[in-house]
Amino acid sequence: MASTASEIIAFMVAISGWVLVSSTLPTDYWKVSTIDGTVITTATYWANLWKTCVTDSTGVSNCKDFPSMLALDGYIQACRGLMIAAVSLGFFGSIFALFGMKCTKVGGSDKAKAKIACLAGIVFILSGLCSMTGCSLYANKITTEFFDPLYVEQKYELGAALFIGWAGASLCIIGGVIFCFSISDNSKTPRMAYAYNGATSVLSSRTKYQSGEGDFKNTSSSKQFDKNAYV
Fold this sequence. Notes:
Strand content: 5-15%
Structural class: alpha+beta
Transmembrane segments: 7-25, 82-104, 116-139, 159-183
Pfam family, one: PMP22_Claudin
InterPro entries: Claudin, Claudin10, Claudin_CS, PMP22/EMP/MP20/Claudin
Radius of gyration: 35 Å
Membrane topology: Multi-pass membrane protein
Keywords: Cell junction, Cell membrane, Membrane, Tight junction, Transmembrane, Transmembrane helix
Number of helices: 5
CATH architecture of the domain at 4-28 and 72-187: Up-down Bundle
CATH topology of the domain at 4-28 and 72-187: Butyryl-CoA Dehydrogenase, subunit A, domain 3
Order of helices and strands: HEEEEHHEHH
CATH class of the domain at 4-28 and 72-187: Mainly Alpha
């Protein structure tokens, strides 16, 4: 029962992390920078893995897509690949988890389901590591440019998408670890086998009682005969 509950908790945690990781791909604010005037913010620059934009004080945004994938910076290409891999691994991990959980009726025996659940945990951990690496690589580029005194171009700060990606990656890793530990719980608590002998009928129980009573009378009479024989 405890193993089933832990698997359900691990599935909910890992799926929540996968949803958060998936939501980071279309999120706008991977990095953001603002230009402040004397009273209001005059412009906000922001970018993600697919485009760079600027929003003025009236709320009008002008965006420019990255012209060519081959002409992109290496860190953006690496982040794209890592985040897409994280989303794909999380999808397959959720499928494996559905087959490996004890509360589902698919996946075969308990031993086979435990192995599938452990595989789902490993896949979720890999998904979390890919997301964590991608977000950290992007954040490292931002912080390096921000603290570089020789960098004269527009400097950015960490956007909301990075924090969402880190949170989702952490949940995926936690859920995957719980799935991996569930296989040890299954091995420690094997299923008990019970033999069913069938219901005893009333007639058979009466027959057994009468036969037992007859044996008791024969035994008592033989004891009395033995005592008379020695008199």
